[in-house]
């Protein structure tokens, strides 16, 4: 058993003595230990669940330019919200710069269905 999270709570002595299922009271500071199987279980519970898988084919618009490409990564970095990295089928020239990979939000793309 691996302890992943320890939470300290204030529990009055009367509550701890009257209810044996409550944690033991040490100077009015009780410790509740939540145990989980491993770190995989922990991150599956609290982590981001990707909407797109690597290799999914998508269509969308980036800076009003239509594109078709392949999903490289669906991620969340530093509370910026979910982003998807797209590897383009054809390069896009925007502001005198040629791009082969772009980063877009979920609302900017749709998954292509097979024909």
Description:
It is a single chain. The protein is mainly beta and 115 residues long. It has two domains: 2-46, no CATH class; 57-111. The chain contains two helices and seven strands. The protein has helices at 13-18, 39-46, and strands at 2-10, 29-36, 57-62, 65-76, 82-94, 97-104, 109-111. The strands form two sheets. A five-stranded antiparallel sheet has the order 6-5-4-3-7, with no helix packed on it. A hairpin with a 2-residue loop joins strand 3 (57-62) and strand 4. The longest helix has 8 residues, at 39-46. The N and C termini lie far apart (49 Å).
Which descriptors apply to this entry?
115 residues, mainly beta, 2 domains, five-stranded antiparallel β-sheet, 7 strands, 51% strand, elongated
Q: If you average the pLDDT, what whole number results?
A: 79
Question: Into how many domains do the coordinates divide?
Answer: 2
Percent of residues in beta strands? over 45%
The amount of helix comes to 10-25%
Element pattern in H and E: EHEHEEEEE
Radius of gyration: 24 Å
Structural class by SSE content: mainly beta
- The number of strands is 7
Distance between the termini: 49 Å
What sort of overall outline do the alpha carbons produce when their principal axes are compared?
Answer: elongated
Contiguous low-pLDDT stretches (5 residues minimum) are none
Given the structure, what is the number of helices?
2
State the strand order across the main sheet: 6-5-4-3-7
> Biggest sheet: strands, sense, closure?
5 strands, antiparallel
């Amino acid at each position: 058993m691996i302890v992943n999270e320890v939470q300290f709570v204030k529990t009055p002595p009367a509550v701890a003595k009257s209810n044996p299922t409550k944690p033991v009271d040490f100077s009015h500071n009780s410790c509740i230990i939540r145990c989980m199987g491993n770190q995989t279980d922990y991150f599956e519970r609290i982590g981001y669940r990707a909407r797109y898988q690597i290799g999914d084919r998508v269509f969308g618009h980036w800076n009003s330019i239509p594109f078709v490409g392949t999903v490289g990564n669906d991620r969340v970095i530093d509370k910026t919200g979910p982003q998807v990295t797209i590897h383009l089928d054809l390069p896009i020239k925007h502001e005198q710069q040629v791009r082969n990979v772009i980063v877009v939000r979920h609302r900017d793309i749709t998954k292509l269905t097979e024909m």
